[in-house]
Amino acid sequence: MAYNERVVDHYENPRNVGSLDKSDEGVGTGLVGAPACGDVMKLQIQVSPDGIIEDAKFKTFGCGSAIASSSLVTEWVKGKTLDEAIEIKNTHIAEHLALPPVKIHCSVLAEDAIKAAVADYRAKHVGVSGDANAEHAETVDAAE
Amino acid sequence: MVENVTGANINLPIYLDYQATTPLDPRVLEVMMPYLTDNFGNPHSRSHSFGWEAEEGVEKAREQVASLIGANPKEIVFTSGATESNNLAIKGVGEFYKDRRNHIITVVTEHKCVLDTCRHLEQEGFRITYLPVQKNGLLDLDKLREAISDETVLVSVMAVNNEIGVIQPIAEIGAICREHGAFFHTDAAQAVGKIPLDVNEMNIDLMSISGHKLYGPKGIGVLYVRRKPRVRLKAMINGGGQERGMRSGTLAPMLCVGIGEACAIAQKDMGSDNERIRSLSNRLAKGLEDTLPDIFLNGDAEQRYPGNINYSFAFVEGESLMMGIKDLAVSSGSACTSSSLEPSYVLRAIGVEEDLAHTSLRIGIGRFTTEAEIDYSVATLKAHVSKLREMSPLWEMAQEGIDIKSIEWSDH
Amino acid sequence: MTKIGIYLDYNASAPMEEAVANAVRDVALQGGNPSSVHRFGNVARRAIEDAREKVASFAAARPSEVVFTSGGTESNNLAIGGSGRETVFVSAVEHDSVLAPAADKSLRCEIIAVDTNGVVDTGALDQMLTAAKSPALVSVMFANNETGVIQPVKKIAEIAHSHGALFHCDAVQAAGRLSLDELSGADLISLSAHKLGGPMGVGALIVRHDSLKARIVGGGQERGRRAGTENGPGIAGFGVAAEIASTHEKATEINDLRDNLEARLTAIGGFIFGDGAVRIGNTSCVSMPRVAAETQVIAFDLDGIAISVGAACSSGKVGASHVLAAMGVAVDDAETAIRVSLGHQTTSAQIDQFIDSWTILRLRTGDAARSAA
User: Fold this and answer.
1) Which of these, C243, C142, C122, lies nearest to C183 by C-alpha position?
2) Which of C290, C291, C315, C321 is the most buried if burial means most Cβ atoms within 10 Å?
3) Burial grade of B144 (CB within 10 A; 0-12, 13-18, 19 or more)
4) Opening angle at CA A115, ends A110 and A118, nearest 5
């Protein structure tokens, strides 16, 4: 199987691998996928008090395309507001990495990871931001 | 260790996929070469020396194959490969005897072409029993004894499994089949030339052999068909009457002499080959197990062909590992299915949890593998497994003491 | 053993050109299973797909229509047994590898008659198809292996299709000698590599029919139409041979040699079967009156000339050719027929030697016949 060079680059030099303190009030954690399906992504965002994503970290169990997709979105979400971040669509990711059809699910998972991380952050701040769109957020949750 | 790696001269990528196909032995190629140029005759041409010489080569090859498995040359039917042999054995015997007996027994971990052929016969009204295997990949003989009856026409059990290398108790299965008057077919594509097999001692009635799995050419295989007591079968390819009517079509002398020579070399070198392969296999296992925690050998640790090693590297996904270790040509499943994303049905059958099944690699060691290649492979695997684990959320959880099975994962 | 001799049995098998042999060897040395995802697998896959394109182009087909098999016999069996049609019409002069699977008891098979030249009676075929109760498969070869007689395949395809039938054409002997563009109307076409200068043990079935049912299953190779690890080296050789052969289709040298041979033979008492029909340019089915073919074969062999009696696979069989019988040739005459088939290495000097041997044998046996009488 031939991989796109961007996939290879992210796989070989993954950006922002690591973990943030999930109990930190400013951190949102998204954990999506399932080991039995061969992909699990953990995406964490560090959000500033004014709602800007200042940092992002990931860990991924999955194929090269899954690793590349999650590495890529850590770069993309940085500097964005939460609303901007959840506008990132799997199609953008798939297009940027030239994912073949059998790998589209990796980009879907990355999109889900962003949403889950944002939802987790928002759940921690229910009432603070008035955001009610966070009912299914939990630190360790496989969001869908 | 590192000096070994850097000091030795190795060609990359390293071939570690001996179950998918073996490299052609140069000694085999040498015997084939004249048939690429001068000896171009059709072995069925009875009217001139071009044909006779080709025929001579074919008949010598037949003897070489027969000798390796303790058969009579007249019991050797050349085919295009083990897939055809397996199809012919199961479909051919099934259809010939269907009015008398219509039950076939096989095992869930058989090669796809055995299972697909059985499914095909099932649609035609045969009763097929797919026996499970134990956690070590071996067949429980009591299960076979329970399933076999006087309606059973054929039992098909492979000798060495292509994915996990376990060796089934062939002689015992043969004895049980003989007792019940059922024919015993074994897909020995991964076994012939690697472990000693004797069709008479083991009561084998039909045996499939592949040329390119024993350092011979692709495009040729053999079906051994017992003459006493006689096994009859309905041919799948007709017209011409070659191979005593069991398989028509012009024989390719170049391919026949190739598989013949491959068998002769295997017969001569099996002992020394196996000693080397066992030592390399042990070296690999020790190298990995000493340095990497949470790796699991799939299939029985003892009852196995040492050149086939299947490990699950927990918390690391197999495809990403393959991508990292691109200097090692290994397989994450059997060659025919490895482009699909499904985890192997063989690993599932031996009870490997799906998450572990996704993390498994088959490492094939063979006649041309060197110690330096093994050392390089161990170092490469160690580096990439460690790197990917550092990146793995599952590994992180495991280190934190979280049982990943306690988490409710979503399906996607 | 080095062979010194004259090979005039190209219809049984043709020697490989150097480029073909090199391709076989090179791919054999590369190794790798084409289904493997690593580099060795990719290299093996590429060799096969390159060859698939070459064979497709040679056969005026699309690469996706090419199903590689172990040879012409398997291709014919796959076409007949895998077409899904239970009513099968085959010509009386087909190769055994068409006749045998057509005679399987799961099928209803009828034989299409041929005329005295061995050409299919298209009127009879039309009537048979009209009377058929279910959609049929028609199987007629492009050129006959024993006589070289060419069938009106375009017309047969039209007739078949006008009745909703499928048309299978065994083009094993025609490939490399006739342009396969003629077969644009065939739904299934059988090819054999070694008859056109490729290696033995490889062939193809061109499949333009959606629902071909695989005969060898398990593994999913060839898009599920033929399972088993591909014979990469053989397929690569096939590709190169096909490429070379496409340059041969219009070659007239062989045709000229054969016509010269026949003109001289008939002048000295030889009789050519099927010469009232259009034939491929390399084949002669020739009778030496009253001299048993077996006698001729032995005599030619002693002179170092390789020819055959009928088809190679039945060379060892007793009994006259079913092809000649279908043409209405009496058994006594049919038993005096040999097949002489020429190829690209054939020279006019070799033809001269063949004529010399033939003449001497005829004189000798003629004397023997007279003195016995």
Assistant:
1) C142
2) C321
3) buried
4) 125
CATH topology of domain B26-266: Aspartate Aminotransferase; domain 2 (3.40.640)
To the nearest 10°, report the CA torsion of C156, C162, C164, C168: 10
Q: Could you tell me if A100 lies within 8 Å of chain B, comparing CB atoms?
A: no
For residues A62 and B320, is the Cβ–Cβ distance under 8 A? yes
Separation of alpha carbons B153 and B89, rounded Å: 12
User: Which of chain B's residues have a Cβ under 8 Å away from the Cβ of C196?
Assistant: none
- Asked if the C-beta of C7 comes within 8 angstroms of chain B's C-beta atoms, the answer is yes
Q: Does residue A106 have an active-site annotation?
A: yes
Residue for token pair 């309606």: B151
What is the Cα B142 distance to its own chain's centre?
Answer: 24
Q: For residues B61 and B234, is the Cβ–Cβ distance under 8 A?
A: no
Helix (H, G, I), strand (E, B) or coil at C129: helix
Question: CA of B256: which chain C residue's CA is closest?
Answer: C201
d(CA B345, CA A67): 25
User: Coil, strand, or helix at residue A41?
Assistant: strand
On chain C, the residues whose CB falls within 8 A of the CB of B219 are: 70, 201-202, 230-231, 233-234
CA gap B202, B104 in Å, rounded: 19
d(CA A4, CA A70): 15
Q: Chain B: give the shortest CA distance to residue C40, in Å.
A: 7
Q: Which of A7, A47, A68, A106 is catalytic?
A: A106
- 3-class DSSP assignment, residue B290: helix
CA of A51 to nearest chain B CA: how many angstroms apart?
Answer: 26
Domain range annotation of chain B: 2-23+270-406, 26-266
Query: Which residues in chain A have their CB less than 8 angstroms from residue B354's CB?
Result: 35-37
Q: pLDDT, tens digit, for every residue of B299-334?
A: 999 999 999 999 999 999 888 898 899 899 998 754
Among the partner residues C36, C192, C313, nearest to B338 by beta-carbon distance: C36
Q: What subunits make at least 3 CB pairs under 8 angstroms with C?
A: B
Q: pTM of the predicted model, to two decimals?
A: 0.91
* CB within 8 Å: A40 and B409: yes
The CA distance from C301 to C296, in Å, is 8
Nearest C-alpha of chain B: how many angstroms from A108? 10
CA contacts within 13 A on the Cβ side of B334:
22
Cα distance from B404 to chain C (closest Cα, Å)? 30
Nearest CA in chain A to B323: A64
Which chain B residues are closer than 8 Å to A112 by Cβ?
412
Mean pLDDT for the stretch of residues C173-179: 94
Q: What is the pLDDT of residues B199-239, one digit of tens each?
A: 999 999 999 999 999 999 999 999 999 999 999 999 999 99
- DSSP annotation of B192 reads B
What are residue B372's DSSP bridge partners? none
Q: CA–CA separation, B219 vs C67, rounded Å?
A: 14
Residue A130 has pLDDT above 70, yes or no: no
Task: Decide if domain B2-23+270-406 falls under CATH 3.40.1080.10.
Answer: no
Distance, CA of A33 to CA of A73 (rounded, Å): 16
pLDDT digits (tens, 9 = 90+) for A56-67: 999 999 999 999
Q: How many Å apart are CA B11 and CA B24, to the nearest integer?
A: 17
A67 touches chain B (CB under 8 A): yes
Q: Which two tokens stand for residue B198?
A: 């004797």
Res. C1 pLDDT band, cuts 50 70 90: very low
Residues of C in contact with B41 (CB under 8 A): 12-13, 306
pLDDT of residue C317: 53
The reported pLDDT for the residue numbered B357 is: 83
Count CA within 13 A, CB hemisphere, residue A103. Answer: 24
What ipTM, to 2 d.p.? 0.93
Q: Which fold has domain A5-123?
A: Sufe protein. Chain: A (3.90.1010)
